[in-house]
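Aim 2, interim progress. The first record below pairs a target sequence with its C-alpha cells.
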Amino acid sequence: MVINSLNTKEIINKALLIVWKNLFYLAICYMLYILSLTIVAILAGVSFALLQDGNLHVGFVFLPFILVVILIICLNIGMTRIILGLVDGSRLPYISLFNNFSLFLPYLLSSLIVISPVLIAIFIIYLITLIFDNYLFMLLLIPLFIPAVYLSLRLIFSPLLIIDTTIKVSVKKSLNSSWIKTEGNLLNFFTLSVWSGLYSSFFYILIPIVFMLFMFLFNLQDFNIYILLLSLILIGLLSFLFFVIYISFELICLLILYRALHNNKIRSV
C-alpha cells in the first residue's frame, strides 16, 4: 500500500516545526519523565540494598523489579502518547504520562512479537555456533538477519497502534494493520530513519560543545563569579533543551510517518 501525498523532506520539516512550537512543553514532559525514572531507580536501589543487608528476603526482590519494569514501560507509553498528540495537533495533559497501565500488557505483547524474529535469528546463530564450535558458521548465518529484520520492520507499527487511543485494536489486528501499512514503504522508513538520525545527531553533538564552552569560561582567571553562575545555568538549560530535541526528534518523525500511513498520505522520496 504505497500512498502518494507526503515525503521524507516534508516529514522532517513538520517534525522540526512540532519541536520548535512545543519545545518547553516537551521539556516539562521529559523533566517529569526523568524525575519519575529517578524515583523508580531509587526504589529499586533501596530494595537491592535491603537484600544485601539481609533485611529483605530474596523472593521479595522480584516484586519491586517487576514493578520497576512495568513503570518504565508505562512511562515510555505515556511519552509516546504525548508526542503522538503533538503530531495530531493537541497537547495532552501531563497526567497522560502516568495513566497507561491498561495498555501495558497488549503493548508488551506486541513489542515482544515485533522483536521476536531478530531474537530468534540471534538464538539460532548462537546455538549453531556452540554446536559446531566454529565461528565461521556465525559468519555464514549472518544473512539470517535479513528476513528477521524485514519481518520486524513490517510489524514495527503494531505497538503504536496499541498506544493510539483514537483507534482501539487487539494485538492481532495491530499486527495485521502494521503489515498492511508497511507494504511497499520500507524504503520510506529506511530513508526517514537515516535523515532523522542525522538531524538528531546534530543536536546531540551540540551538547558537548556547550559544555566545552562552559569549561572555557570556567578557566578564565578574571571571570566574574556571578556571570559564571549565570553562564552555568544558561548552558545547563541549553544542554537540556538540546537533549530534549535529540531524544524526541526521531520519535516525532516516526509518529508522523505512522499517522501519514494511517491516513493514507505517504509518497516515496
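The second target in this work package is listed in the same format:
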Amino acid sequence: MADTVIDWAAVEAACAALGNDGAWKKPDLAVICGSGLSGLAEDFDEVRSVGYASVDLLGESTVKGHDSRIFLGTHTGDSGKQATVLFFQGRRHYYEGQGFAPIAFPPAFANWLGCNRLLITAAAGSLSQEFIGYRGIARIVDHIDLFFPNPLVGPPPHNRDRFIATADKYNGSLGMQVAAAIENEGVCLREGVYAAVTGPNYESGAVARMLSGHADFVGMSTVPEALIASALGFDFAGVVSVTNESGMSDNEHGEIKEVAVDIMPSLKNVIARVADRIVAGE
C-alpha cells in the first residue's frame, strides 16, 4: 500500500504543473463524478480536457465506470450567465492501492484554480428501511467515518488548522442549493447519512445490520474527499446514487451502471441548475 500520509508539497506541485499552461479558468463549481456518472459533463461545452494518465500523481482509475478525465466546461442557464464547472470524470479509490494522493488531487486542483464549491457524487448501497428497495438519488446530510486510515493524518495542507470541524458540513449553502435543485426536478428529496468503509469488498450481512441502525447508505469513498475538502475550506455537498441493497450475497458492480443511466438526466439538470444559481448570485 502506498504511503498513507499526503505529501501536500507534491500535490501542490502537480496542480501547478497541470494548471500553469494558461488554458484553465476559475470554475464556479467542481464535481467529482462517482461510479457510472462520468456522463454528467455531457451537456457542458468543453473548455479544456485532459486524461488522468497525464497527471502522474493522479493516474487512471482501475475501476470500471470511471472515465478518468478532467473536463472543464461551460453552460448558460436560465439566468443568461455562463457558468464554468470542473468535472472529475471518475474517482480514484483508496482500495486501488496508490494511497491518498490521487484522492487529494481533485479537490486540491479545484482549490488551486480558485474554486471553493465542491459537489461529491458516488454510488452507494442502501441500509435503512427507508432506503431498502429504493434506486435513485439521495442527498448526504452527514456521514459516519469508518474509513481507515484518515487522509488528514500528517501535516495539514497549506499550514491550515489540523483540527477541523466536520459537523453539519454537508448542509451549507451548496447543500441547500442541491436540495432545492433536486426538488425542482420533481424528484422526491431523499436525504440520509452516508457510512464510509474502505472496501473493496462489499459489506457482510452482519456489517450491514450493524450499520443500518445508524446510517442510510454505505459506500467506499466520499468521506476522504469530504475531509480533504473541509481542510481546504470548501463549501461542499454530497449526492449518492443508491444502486443496490447492502449486505446481499448477489451484489454486482454492474447494478451501478444501470441505475446511473436512469438518474443521469435528473442529476445533470441538478448540476446545471446549481451552477446557474451560483453565477446568478443566489
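The chain is about 30% helix and 25% strand. This observation will shape the mutagenesis plan for the next reporting period.
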